[in-house]
């Protein structure tokens, strides 16, 4: 194993350990009740309340990585395929139209500022994650399968520019090329 390969492996081990520490701290906060209010819930509180357009109900909310939260704290399921295809990231503002027949139609109306980072796809605790910028970002299974990602692949990940997030959206799986070494700092 070359020195560069050993360094890359050590870096990934450290990033994984840091991710495990963050997860453990989050669990402690949840168990002790000392976790602060979710930043996305705070943003959602400032949005318009529910409206009615004919027989349809219109709800605005904030995407949190898996669901949409409205200004009352109610969560609405966001289809993983839509979130994946639209490359939604936490903090994006969505408009949900609940049709008279019960159908849900989502539309992204306020994307947050984004940045791209490169990381490595991993699978831990029953969830796909991308280790990038010394952090583990959870990604949707729908994105992994759509892009045909495999553990160990280099991933271009889209995350919120300003707010800290535990979630990211896969933009691409970088091509495997033995002669091409892509580092996070190169992007």
What is the CATH superfamily classification of the largest domain? Nucleic acid-binding proteins
Query: Terminal Cα separation, in Å?
Result: 26 Å
Mean pLDDT: 84
Number of E-state strands: 11
CATH-defined architecture of the largest domain: Beta Barrel
In N-to-C order, the SSE pattern is HHEEEEHEEEEEHEE
Described by its quaternary structure, the protein is: single chain
> What composes the largest sheet?
6 strands, antiparallel
Question: What's the level 1 CATH class of the largest domain?
Answer: Mainly Beta
Instruction: Note the overall shape.
Output: elongated
Which spans have pLDDT < 50 for at least 5 consecutive residues? none
Quickly give the structural class.
Answer: alpha+beta
Q: Beta-sheet strand percentage?
A: 25-35%
Number of helices: 4
CATH topology of the largest domain: OB fold (Dihydrolipoamide Acetyltransferase, E2P)
Polypeptide structure, described:
The chain is an alpha+beta fold and 187 residues long. The chain folds into two domains: 3-33 and 113-186, OB fold (Dihydrolipoamide Acetyltransferase, E2P) (Beta Barrel); 39-110, no CATH class. The protein contains four helices and eleven strands. Strands 1, 2, 3, 4, 5 and 6 form a six-stranded antiparallel β-sheet that branches. Strands 9-8-7-10-11 form a five-stranded antiparallel β-sheet. The model has no long low-confidence stretch (mean pLDDT 84).
């Amino acid at each position: 194993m070359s020195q560069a390969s050993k360094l890359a492996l050590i870096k990934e081990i450290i990033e994984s350990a840091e991710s495990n520490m963050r997860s453990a701290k989050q669990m402690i906060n949840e168990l002790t009740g000392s976790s602060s209010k979710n930043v996305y819930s705070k943003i959602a509180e400032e949005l318009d309340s529910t409206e009615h357009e004919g027989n349809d109900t219109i709800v605005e909310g904030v995407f949190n990585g898996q669901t949409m939260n409205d200004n009352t704290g109610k969560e609405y399921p966001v289809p993983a395929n839509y979130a994946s295809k639209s490359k939604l990231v936490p903090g994006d503002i969505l408009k949900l139209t609940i049709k008279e027949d019960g159908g849900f139609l989502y539309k992204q109306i306020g994307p947050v500022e984004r940045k791209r980072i490169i990381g490595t796809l991993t699978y831990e605790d029953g969830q796909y994650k991308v280790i990038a910028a010394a952090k583990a970002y959870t990604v949707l299974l729908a994105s992994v399968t759509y892009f045909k990602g495999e553990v160990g692949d280099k991933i271009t990940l889209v995350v919120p520019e300003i707010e800290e997030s535990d979630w990211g959206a896969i933009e691409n799986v970088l091509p495997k090329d033995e002669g091409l070494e892509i580092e996070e700092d190169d992007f």
